[in-house]
Each structure stands twice: as structure tokens, then as C-alpha cells.
Amino acid sequence: ERHIDIVKVPRSSRGASTIMNLKIIYEDGNLLVVDKPAGIDIEGIKSALPEGSFPAHRLDKDTSGALLVAKNQETLDFLQKQFQERRVDKKYVCLVEGNIPDKGGTIETLVGRAKGDKRKQKVYLAGEPGSGRDAKTEYRVLERFKARLPDGQDYTLLEVSPKTGRKHQIRAHMTYLGHPVVGDKLYGFKNQKVPTGLKRQFLHAAYLKVSTPDGNTKEFISALPQDLILCLQQLKNS
């Protein structure tokens, strides 16, 4: 098992830099799959990669999980074409607020930049004024956590499969569904309750299935990180 060190430099020059360990899930001559930790954006990942390597897609700063990295331009083009043609199988694990009664479902809308807040994406319906591109997300329920106290909060653990690759797609779609990702400060509802100890959004890129330049199909799995495991344990025991 191999790791890469990420040097995280604070915005203020007065602070001391810290080094984070970046686990490598898979590596060959063309492809690198890293286990991205939460709290590091894509630019931070890029700074730690070997020279000539490029991330083939993006994960939000506070989303953890499997990230594909191309070691050369040819592989980058090969992988990005798969994403563009929607041939990459992606699965995320996320915890959302509230109880989703169905076993699963599909969300199909348009998603585009929100007016008045450039940080956010907005869900648009067909015919609604605004600019949006088609976005499709499938989800299935993995587990439900019912509040034991009258004023407690229900939660639902989901496996989510985005079939398109719009910015913040899962986060925007879950909020549109009325069940925002727990800990999501940008898309969460006002006064959203967050389990004690959870410091970021509960969203993890757990699985990728892609074709590789050598003609094979490979699957990559990123285990749920410790902070999210502890969150679920707390909900089960509370």
C-alpha cells in the first residue's frame, strides 16, 4: 500500500503547514486512483500528484472518496470521454435529513447556476425560466435511523448513483427532494440538525467502474472513512 503526502498550507502565512496522507487505491502505468480525504479541494490534490498527472473528474472539497487520476494526456482524454458519454458507473454513500419512506427512486430535472448566489446550483423544471442542463440521479435506501426522542431528527442512509455529472448534482437534488445531505452548509435547510461530531457533509464517493486504456474494465472501492463510520455508530446507539 502506497501513500502520497499532501502539504496543506493555510491562507495566513503565520500558520504552520500540515502534511496529510493520501492513500492510493490503485496504480498502473496510466492510471492512479486516490482516496481523497474531506477538507482538501482539487487544487490541493493536484499539488500533491506526480508531475504530468491530472484528476479526470472532480469531487467537492468536503466530499471524500475515490478519485481517478490520469498519468498522461492520452489517458486523461480517454477517461474524460467516458464521463462525457455517461459510461462511468459512480456510486456515492450519503446521509440525508428526514425519513425517505420509499425503497428508492429517480430524480430527473434540469440543474444550472443559481441566480443571486454563484456558489450554488439550482434545480429547474422543464419550461421554468432559467438556464439548466439535464440531470438524473438514482438512489436507494440502505438504512433508516429513527429518532428516539420526540424532538429528535430522523435520518436516511442512501446509495446514490448520479447518471449525469452536473456540479453539486447530488447535493442539489437531495435538497430538491426535501432531504438535504446532512452537514451540507451550502444546501442544507436553515437550523438543520447535525449529529454530534460530524464536521462536514456526509457524502462519500464509494465506487467507480470504468474502462481502462488497456481494454479492461476495472472497479474501484473506497471504504467509508472513520468520521462517517463514527457518525453512523452514534446514530445507532443514540
Question: How would you describe what is shown here?
Answer:
Strands 1, 2, 3, 4, 5, 6, 7, 8, 9, 10, 11 and 12 form a twelve-stranded mixed beta sheet that branches. The protein has four helices and twelve strands. It starts with a strand and ends with a helix. The longest helix has 12 residues, at about 75-85. With about 240 residues, it is α+β, with helices and mostly antiparallel strands.
Write the layout of secondary structure elements.
Elements: E1 3-8, E2 18-27, E3 31-36, H1 42-48, E4 54-55, E5 64-70, H2 73-84, E6 89-97, E7 104-113, E8 121-124, E9 133-145, E10 155-162, H3 169-176, E11 203-211, E12 217-221, H4 226-237
Parallel strand pairs: 5-11
Antiparallel strand pairs: 1-2, 2-3, 3-5, 4-5, 6-10, 6-11, 7-8, 7-9, 9-10, 11-12
Order of helix and strand elements from N to C terminus: EEEHEEHEEEEEHEEH
Q: What level of helicity do the residues show?
A: 10-25%
Structural class label = alpha+beta
Beta fraction of the residues?
35-45%
What is the average of the pLDDT values? 89
Features:
globular; twelve-stranded mixed β-sheet; alpha+beta; 4 helices; 238 residues; 16% helix
In a nutshell, what does this entry contain?
This protein has 238 residues and is of the alpha+beta class. It is built from 4 helices and 12 strands, in the order E-E-E-H-E-E-H-E-E-E-E-E-H-E-E-H.
